[in-house]
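Hello support,

Our group uses your service weekly, and this is the first time we've seen a run hang past the timeout. The protein is Alpha-galactosidase. I'm not sure whether the cause is the sequence or the server load. Input pasted verbatim:
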Amino acid sequence: MKASSGILLLAFTAVASALENGLMRTPPMGWMAWERFRCNVDCENDPKNCISERLFMDMADRLAEDGWRELGYDHVMIDDCWTSMQRDKDGLLQPDPKRFPRGIAKLAQYVHERGLKLGIYADFGTHTCGGYPGTTFDKIETDAQTFADWKVDYLKFDGCYSSAEDQEKGYPLMSKALNATGRYIGYSCSWPAYQGGLPPNINYTLLGEICNLWRNYDDIEDSWTSVLSIVDWFFTNQDQLQPVAGPGHWNDPDMLIIGNFGLSPDQSRSQMALWAIMAAPLIMSNDLRTLTSDARNILQNKAIIAISQDPLGIQGRRLLQEKSRIEVYWRPLASSASALVFFSRRTDMPYRYHCSLDKLNYTAGLYEMYDVFTGEVLSLPSHTTPFTVSINPSGVVMWYIYPVARPTQTGEERKYPSVRRKLRVSTVRRGQRNGEHHLFL
Ligand SMILES: *[C@@H]1O[C@H](CO)[C@@H](O)[C@H](O)[C@H]1NC(C)=O
Ligand SMILES: *[C@@H]1O[C@H](CO)[C@@H](O)[C@H](O)[C@H]1NC(C)=O
Ligand SMILES: *[C@@H]1O[C@H](CO)[C@@H](O)[C@H](O)[C@H]1NC(C)=O
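Update from on-call engineer: The timeout came from a worker crash unrelated to the input. Re-ran successfully.
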């Protein structure tokens, strides 16, 4: 456990030079096929759910018509299993003609007409993970150009069937090749996930220079066990992973599975809250055509989305792991606000957790807290005032918290020098909330 000033300083030692394509200044949002629809290519028997242009057009319609796009969910992403088993006679990737009869360029047009962006998938290696044609060294420039010609906006570049040595050359080469096309294409690198995800095997400084986001760890599955294993890995390794994220270059703990079969409503709220704390991409993999209103409400929660999309782009951290199996997570936000998540790993009953902002090393002052799930606004007269939150088993309480008054003692100034500089901390008076903290008002 680091001292809080250590936490804050760490939070600001961000990677200096990032990929200069100007994309993804906040974590990308959208929808991706993989976790829910996998490599289902059986369009004869399962036409609604197979990997085909129809699936992506359906999802584009839903994103555009059901309020998702306005909230920032603006990418529709193809994953594996979209190509033919062979490249065409000129060596180009081609979509399966039965499942994508109109081709990817037409699909991109359809998606663009709805104000959305199209993501596509390729694999650096001899084959994709699903056994389709891969992108070997000699095909990197060709494939980048193909995607640009089709007006694709995003590439997930997987890493099945390539060696660590080749990946070290191949991932930077694809970054250069995408840039050379002249089209702005977001670049998601699976490289770290194939090499253990941690330094020294992974050089995150380099990743930040060549990729907009990267998968660090295992694929998510439709289960709470899977979500927990991802949360455990990312926060156990937060000292290495947290500083490397920032505008234009993000850690990617994988897709949101909210709306599928594996998570209870409380667990769904937990995934959403913890992904926002992690400044993770919010890429859903579910069936937007049949989503329940419970799932929709969680995924469309404006306050959580605003926290996820905070302009400072600082990834959050785990602050506390209590013996009671309650954990506290924190993310600093613009306008001297922050987000707190109280997470229960208990399996018995709602737990009444006692805490104070002081214990979490908040500086002296008056604070208000907006409970992002209930909409309640709470205020605390002092940072030392004890409070109690009731947290459901495998659930969370999440607050957006902002100061309504600050003492101006110089002692306080010295306590968080970097934060005060960056966040422009000033005395915010009651009633100014509309101006300074307009997050979701
Ligand atoms: C608060 O700061 C103290 C002293 O620097 C440190 O020991 C403690 O771990 C910090 N607590 C949290 C929750 O960050
Ligand atoms: C290519 O990279 C340069 C900087 O190296 C950047 O200025 C330019 O915007 C990039 N272009 C594209 C299309 O990504
Ligand atoms: C990591 O990559 C950066 C940027 O390319 C480079 O300057 C640095 O030397 C590399 N670090 C290691 C340990 O290889």
